[in-house]
Amino acid sequence: MKRRNFISNTSLLLAGTTLLPQNIFTIQKEFISLRPKLANRKFVSKEVERVITEVKSVIKDKELAWLFENCFPNTLDTTIDFEFIDGKPDTFVITGDIDAMWLRDSTAQVWPYMPLINKDKKLKELIKGLINRQVKCVLLDSYANAFFKDKTRISHWESDVTQMLPGIHERKWEIDSLCYVVRLANEYYQITKDVSIFDSDWDKAIKLIVKTFKTEQRKNNESEYVFSRETTSVIDSPPFDGTGRPAKPNGLICSMFRPSDDSTMYPYLIPSNIFAVLSLRQLHSIYSNVFKDEKFANECKNLADEVDSAIQKYAVTEHLVFGEIYAYEVDGFGNKLFMDDANVPSLMSLAYLGAHKNTDAIYKRTRQFLLSDNNPYFLKGALAEGQASPHTGKNKIWPMGIILRAMTSTDDAEIKKCLKMLKATHAGKGFMHEGFDKDNPDNYSRDWFAWANTLFGELILKIYNENRSLLAVNY
Question: Could you give a single Gene Ontology term from the biological process aspect (predicted)?
């Protein structure tokens, strides 16, 4: 069973909101809110509600405003389990149509709300609770990517050949999962200056993260991680008894899986290594300025410098058409894979994550490649063009890819084009999906994908704050 197949494409069930096929035309025409009734919402933030009202008021296109109203609060409306455990806030965030929490998705799902936390005490507590929950997850297993809150639950993937401890939904080793843990805590601290999150458990989790990064450099074949799944999909499990393809140690960190949860072709996944450099530099600052632990701070800095140096040496390479760009994956032997995946971190998302300015020469050249026919996962169809993912096959474009293209663009015309495509391809559902057929948006995967929904909301909010005139037109 693949992650994208849990909910059918013929109905939408979101925590008290049911959209059946016979209702679609009416809702498309009248643009009735598809949010759950107030009593059925999982979490309510007055500040988020204020932003929805404020932003909607300046969006001229009624359908675009409807999409924003449905999508932006979707994480809060439908995926939050918030409580206090042992006197500390605890927030469990499911991904949507799968009742489990991904470290990556949970951070990304709440990210658009981060600028509001100083204005909303409840929202601030929610983020603090998620930081606490992620720490618990890392301390349980730093190699796992997805978790259950109820440790008695049996995972659909219990037969995977790997160490499946109670509380683990899936154990795919992905560098970015741990980077997102750092990203959330660092952003919370930068915004609030609240150092109370940096307790002894957080310190233990971070030191385990750095230890895991260093182990997965595999300089002396010290990693004991293996993952094997009985599957007919070549991208759902690493080859060679779950150990992955050969890689020559060079300072880069191995990642057996991509942020799509697909296995890597070559073990050195470059966007995730770049993300790791960012995270390690953030840890250097935190441990220098907050913990006053110069020894560990320097350990983080030195590892960041080592990985960054290896990226420049092994991943920055001459493309036949575009000149010097980033490869997506490498193996240390000189083999390189030129592509991208719509999931974040991706090469496209480097400007979004803060690894590059969108005006940096290497990023601009890489981006030109990504939006060209030379990228095997850039698809063009009847109503849209955009980045895809091997996760959904050779014919499905990801709304997330279109959203990231708009978020990293400096061209008004390109941003408008992206908004038109997003409006034209939600299949009348009022929400973003995982992927849709390039020639038939009605053929899509995942009705309830909270990350894609809130990322769309983040895009509209970014445009509202930076380029509001783009919302004053009909698309």
Answer: carbohydrate metabolic process
CA–CA separation, 168 and 375 (whole Å): 35
CB atoms within 10 A of CB 458: 21
Please name the residue that has the structure tokens 């405003």.
65
The total of other beta-carbon atoms located within 10 Å of residue 209's CB is 22
The answer to pTM > 0.90 is yes
d(CA 257, CA 54): 40
Token pair 């601009």 in the structure block, residue: 364
Burial class (CB in 10 A: 0-12, 13-18, 19+), 289: exposed
Q: How far is CA 128 from CA 45, 149, 199, 356, 357, in A?
A: 15, 17, 12, 28, 29
Strand ranges (DSSP E) for 238-305? 268-269
Mean pLDDT across the stretch 64-75? 98
β-strand partners of 385: 380
Phi–psi pair at 170, nearest 5 degrees: -150, 145
On whether the CB atoms of residues 210 and 277 are closer than 8 A, the answer is: no
Contact between 374 and 321 (Cβ < 8 Å): yes
Q: 145 near 171, Cβ under 8 Å?
A: yes
The sheet with strand 396-397 has its strands ordered as 396-397, 435-437, 440-445
Q: Tokens 């993300």 sit at which residue?
A: 275
H/E stretch holding 176: helix 175-192
- pLDDT digits over 337-374, tens only? 999 999 999 999 999 999 999 999 999 999 999 999 99
Measured distance CA(155)–CA(38) in Å, rounded:
32
Instruction: Please report where in the chains the tokens 């909101």 appear, as a residue.
Output: 17
- In 98-161, alpha helices (H): 103-110, 121-140
Rounded CA-CA distance 18/138 in Å is 35
Position 429, amino acid: K
- What DSSP assignment string belongs to 374-417? TSTTEEE-SS-EEEB-GGG-SSEE-HHHHHHHHHT---HHHHHH
Q: Which of 103-117, 228-242, 311-325, 395-409 has the lowest mean pLDDT?
A: 228-242
| Exposed / middle / buried, residue 421 (Cβ in 10 Å: 0-12, 13-18, 19+) | buried
Residue 264 DSSP one-character state: P
> What pLDDT band is residue 75 in, cutting at 50, 70 and 90?
very high
